[in-house]
Amino acid sequence: MGAVTTHNAIHLPIFWHKEWNNFYQICLSLQYGGAVSIFIPGHNLSHHKYPQQARDVMRTTKVRYNWNLLNGLLFFWHVVLSGNKDDKLYFKAQARLNRPIAKQRRMEEVAVWSATVVLVLLDWRRWIWFALLPQFYAKYCILSLNFLQHDGCDMSSKYNFARNFTGRTLNYFCFNNGFHTVHHLHPGLHWSTLPQKHQELIAPHIAPSLEISDMLLYIWRCFIYPGHRLDYKGHRLLISKEENEMPDEPWFYNGSETYSDTQEYLAYSI
């Protein structure tokens, strides 16, 4: 839940005043175990703007193992190891331009490292069990979820480019993060409006196979039995060597965009 809260706050600020949002991001960084401003280049500016393209550092074509379970398990590492370079370039450019996000990231990192040192000195064993491992699990899950949501979808389609998990239990605990298509099309919407907007804007147009009520059953079928990597039409998904080895293409690092459009939330909330 903490990782999803971080994701939501980076898209749509919680408070009207910037200072309160900056403080809230520091608090989120402490529970997340890392500077949450790092979400902005890799997620907001890369994945959301260029899904499954060369500028998307989280594209699922980065993995092409014959055993689909390995694709799911190792997707996280492929993305993290290749995306760090772009994150560094983005924040280096922001620091050079003296943008506020560079200072915000530094404050988040100071808070995280200070808290980590204190916790390790107090009891390093409890730090591992109650901080390090849960924080890693949160990072691993929210990034790996991208594989479930986009692999095998049609990126040329306005609606069939993402898979939606519509089960009530999942969305109750994950703040409606399962409604992924409407989130991509309208990232400035508040999470509480996503089920309604999915029914209004997405459900009448999307392929039925991209609305899945039971995510655990989908994971079983996708990775365990029969465990085939399929597209949303049920055909075998083959990732070419060229797609797999396509290098990340840097985007324009001088851009000042950070959050999604707050005005969009206001427009849909009236």
UniProtKB/TrEMBL annotation:
This is Fatty acid desaturase domain-containing protein. Keywords: Membrane, Transmembrane, Transmembrane helix. One of its GO terms (biological process) is lipid metabolic process. The keyword Signal does not apply. The chain crosses the membrane at residues 63-81, 127-148. Residues 4-201 form the Fatty acid desaturase domain. Signal peptide: none annotated. It comes from the Eukaryota. It comes from Alternaria alternata.
